[in-house]
Amino acid sequence: MAAVSSVLLLNPATAITKRSGLNHFAVPSYLPSLKRNAIFRVSSMAEDKERDSSEPTPSKPLESAAPPKSIPSKPKVSTNFGDILAFSGPGPERINGRLAMIGFVTAIGVELFNGQDVFAQIQNGGVQWFIVTSALLTAASLIPLFKGVRAESESNGVFSSDAELWNGRFAMVGLVALAFTEYVIGGALV
């Protein structure tokens, strides 16, 4: 077996051997050998800029590594009324999206139950329900925002703040599309 392996190491063209039905590759002798337990050094780019590349640095054992730097705390969020209800603030789109989700589901539900289109629902007491629902939902949405709690900090998994924003956007478009379609056809969609 030693004679076969030495012949294979000398001739890379015959580097494949058949032994016990499996293919084995012999490594030619002119390739560098791989050392076990080699010392690897890992450094960040920030350390490389500070260090002079011409002088060698001894590798430090893992135990003597510097302790990790403290993680910066979360930035304080503004609880100012103007910041919360600003155009790019956390309040308007979230509140309008929540109202649109409730409005779309309610409009479809009443339409399936009574057969009334959106405009008939508004004429038959829908404005009062809209005002009450808007006031309650706006208060429930603004109280956590004034306390400094953001939906992004409390969300994870399927029920994330991004999912809520997208569902609200789709509900806003859906409610407008429902009203427009019922206006064009002149009656209830369902």
From TrEMBL:
It comes from the Eukaryota. The keyword Zinc-finger does not apply. GO terms for cellular component: chloroplast thylakoid membrane. Keywords: Membrane, Transmembrane, Transmembrane helix. It is a multi-pass membrane protein. It is found in: Membrane. Residues 45-75 are annotated as: Disordered. Residues 64-75 have a biased composition (Low complexity). This is Early light-induced protein. It comes from Olea europaea subsp. europaea. The lineage of its organism: Eukaryota, Viridiplantae, Streptophyta, Embryophyta, Tracheophyta.
